[in-house]
Amino acid sequence: MALGDLEREVMTQLWAAAGPLTVRQVHERLSRDRDLAYTTVMTVLDRLAKKDVVTRQKADRAYLYAPAQSREEMTASVMLDALTTSGDQDAALAYFVGRLPPEALAAAIEAAKRK
Amino acid sequence: MTPLLLGALGLTLSLLVPGPLARSRWPDRAPRAAVLLWQAITLAAVLSALGVVLAVPEELSRAYGSRKPVVAGALLVALAVAAVIVARLLISLWGVTRRSRARRERHRLLVDLLDRAERRHAIGPDHLRVLEGALPLAYCVPGREPRVVLSDGVLQVLDRAQVDAVLAHEQTHLRHRHDVVMESFTAFYRAVPAPLRSRVPLDAVHLLLEMVADDAARRVAGPEPLRAALEKLTDAIPLTEDAKPDAWGDARRRRLDRLSAPRPESAGLSLVAGLAVVALLVLPTVIVVVPWLDRALAEWPF
Predict the structure, then answer these.
(1) What is the per-residue pLDDT across B242-261, written as a single tens digit (0 to 9) for each?
(2) Which of A101, B209, B259, B290 fits a disulfide with B227 by CB distance 3.0 to 4.6 angstroms?
């Protein structure tokens, strides 16, 4: 299984969980329907923490991992990032099919975020 | 004469030409050639500026004789100014490339994590990602590992043929590396001192690249699905009062008009624009070389 797919599935588990999870808990949830090494899960969580998409805190002797943002928050900020043409700054990040006024879209995304 | 001619050429290309060219409508019928023309205009303006700077010491040497210290000094200053111009352009290009690469890399990581892989079965390419959310968004993130991103909203609003048209449009941006074209224009824009810079070429080229992608998508998926997709995606959000509907509305209307036309591209216009490109790239060189050749021949002893 590709590393990218595994990262996504680990995030999906963290987003689905009620609270922070240990490596063992993530490993248990992911190995229900496949064979997966504990150390692989540990490596993936470590990578995600280094990329600042999950937070890590120490509880007793194990690390607890939680998503840095909820799925909805992260989706909204990704969309805003794609829409933001930083004006004088740099080339656009993304190329849209229909260019809606970014202001209108940004307002809609912000509104969805607040819900 | 040489510096004056080059200066006039450079100023014409950077101050007088962009406005009318951006307002004219013929580029809609030859978008690819028009992009090349914008590139040639920008490059020729840079070459003219460099030519002016480097030609000044020669003029001085002719006026005062080549032994005078003022000529040697002017030569040093001219070389320094030319070096600064080139360095500014290169640094700007490096900065723009580096920053957009970092931003795209981060964006790619996040869309990969947020991807609803189960919702894109049988839709399309490996690098397609689907985001949750009713807001219809379709875009691509270029780079060495490109991504095409659709939101749930797009899959709800568009039918399969329209989604394919959208994908073909985005694939064209990625395959033709439109990001590199835009980055070079952005780098040039940023390298020009603030009071002189103009967004006109940047915006014009951006719209032209959209038209290039439209034409490619139209060849793959037909004009109707693309037209419908464009209409649906740009109608999805009511415009707010403070949004500027004019600029967007105008670009949108021009693209929709082209998609209704039976043959949007004109071979004749492309050819004329192509000839203009060649002329622009040759002209600064001719202005520098011809007087030199003239003098060299005049001093030829036989």
Answers:
(1) 445 556 678 888 999 999 98
(2) B259
Is A94 within 8 Å of B140 when comparing Cβ atoms?
A: yes
DSSP sequence for chain A: --HHHHHHHHHHHHHHSSS-B-HHHHHHHHTTSS---HHHHHHHHHHHHHTTSEEEEEETTEEEEEESS-HHHHHHHHHHHHH---TTSS--S-EESS---HHHHHHHHHHHHH-
Q: What is the CA radius of gyration of chain A?
A: 18
Q: At what angle do helices B31-64 and B69-114 cross, to 10 degrees?
A: 160
Question: Which chain A residues touch B131 with a CB distance below 8 Å?
Answer: 75, 78-79
CA distance B283 to B47: 10
Contacts of B124 in chain A (CB under 8 A): none
Question: pTM of the prediction?
Answer: 0.87
Q: How far is CA B103 from CA A100, B1, B31, B96, B225, in A?
A: 21, 47, 28, 11, 32
Instruction: Dump pLDDT digits (tens) for B102-135.
Output: 989 999 999 999 998 887 776 778 899 999 988 8
